[in-house]
Amino acid sequence: IIIVSASMTFVNISIARETKIGGSWPGTNISGLRIYSEGLTGLSIHDITWIREQEMCEKIGYIEKIKTLEMLGEGQISRIAFLNIGGEKSHVINLVCVDPDFMEKYYNFSKYVRGFWREFSEGEKVALLPVKYDVAIGEYVTLSVDEKLMVGMGVIDLGTRTLGRFKVVGKFDYAQISLLKGIDNNPLLDDVSNTVLLPIKSVNDTSLFISEATVITRAGFDPVDVAKELAYLLGFPIVANKNGLSVLVRWTLEVSIAGFLPYIIPLAVASLMMYITMSSVYEERKRELFTLATLGLDPRNMLLAFLVEALLIGLIGTFVGFFGTYIISTALLALSSLLKVETAFYYVSWSPLSFFAALFIGVVTVFLGGYIPSIRAQGLSLMGRAKTRELAGELIIEGENAIFQLPIRETLQNSELLYEYSKETLRKISLRLVDPHSIKGEIYGDGTFSISFMALGSGQSVFIPCVLKGERSEDILTLSVVFPKSYREYEQINRILRDLEAYIIGFSSWRDMQLKMRIIRETPKKQKTMDEILDEIKALIKEIKDLNRKLGILESQKGRLTEELYNEFRQKYLNMINEKFKALRSISVGLEPYMSQIQEEIRRTSLEIERTTIAYNLGEISEEEYIKTCSPLQNNLVALKNKLSEVEEVMEFLRKPLGIP
What we know:
The protein has 661 residues and is of the alpha+beta class. Helices cover 43% and strands 27% of the residues.
């Protein structure tokens, strides 16, 4: 690497900007230039004014068109021009603004127009239409432009902007206009059948740009020389026409690298030497690497460690080799002058481009040489596992939905923290995978919650509805992602599930940072019975309903209160409701097992009553015994059903959304 980097000192790299002839063909007898700016930033009116003021310019005319595509940040704007005739449906057109005086003088344009050519003058709201449109001369038409913003997430309609109403002063046969040639013998206008002509300066809109300009040169100026100068200054392709010959002049940027070919073989040798070096490092550390892999070393870290080591060797070798050449040359020159020895040195000036070439080649060489051993080290740490885990086999299919269980189990007391963390996690996922504006969630009184969001499919043109659910299993919350099973093969869905899985694992440490713990000593509290707990729950529900009623009263008086007072009381009651729900959620943890226990007792009591009734009907017991046995059972059954109804009312209340943002 040191030798190769040192040899790069003698590689000469140069960059030149110049104009070149791109081709020629038969032209016309008019000497001049035709400047094209299609697909580029476009000529500006300042460029036109500057060219007009030059000595070589006798006359200049230009054409404006709709900029059909325009880059805007990470997206682009698409435009289409429309012609509206009366109340009829709009027609898609090619809108072109021309210079009437220039077109008449050099192309005798008026002979192709049927109508009032004299009214077609610069800055006037008039138009020329093809004969195929059913509109009479003298009528008015409306021109508009439709804009759409195309971004990664889809297409956004920006609406239709009206350019104005224009009087039709003439019509033309597009078959004749299509035969018109410019001064370079190329068609003067494109897509003539749908073209609507306007005079320049009749529309002042950002959607228009100068697509081309034609310059008539004065006698004594060579159009080819002028084209070379303008192409160098403006950067646009220019066609120069002289004596019936059209010549295309282009602006080019050339990079020249001299003296590189002799060093291809040393580069190959350096790459092989790097491969051998990194392979020997791999073999020496194989036992340690296998031990680390067994203990759970991340395969990605293994790959990066080997690549970084190889790149460091490349960087150090590049600096030593490249700058060492200049240092040794200077030292030898000083030594020869001290010893008074006449020696001829070949001096090479310092070049930043040569330095960057040496740096790039040195780094690339060691990367290519060290990549294969690095992949082998990564394969060792994978220990036969797939590099990317396939999630298709872990999905649970229920009906039309696919369910993916996330690796987390959390107590109900921390449901709000898990809810907030899950929402923040979804916002961390790449914008190319999840639309952040679609993330909406709701938490319920029993601690469960649901967060809906839209995943972006292939090309960000497919929207996949997904729901992140926090579901209750006794006093434990589990997380799962639910989405339509038809999208389970999409790579974007798999990436979202992997990212969620990686982020959710970090909830425990995040939760511990949010909680404040206080350790106190007190006498053990008496264990409450379920009846006492139920009474306490009903009292809390009553308080919550009362607070909701007060919030309703506050909402009805919102118009008569100042915003500061309204927000103060509203936040106060919301905080109280939130605290009540936390307490309610904490003490209602055992309600589900209790409800199951009541249902089981109801089942056993009903079965005992039915057994006694059958025995009575069969005459096995007397009526007195039947009444004595069944009466307590029926009274107990009624009490159990009443208690079950109370528990179900509480559970129903807990399943309702909190309505707290």
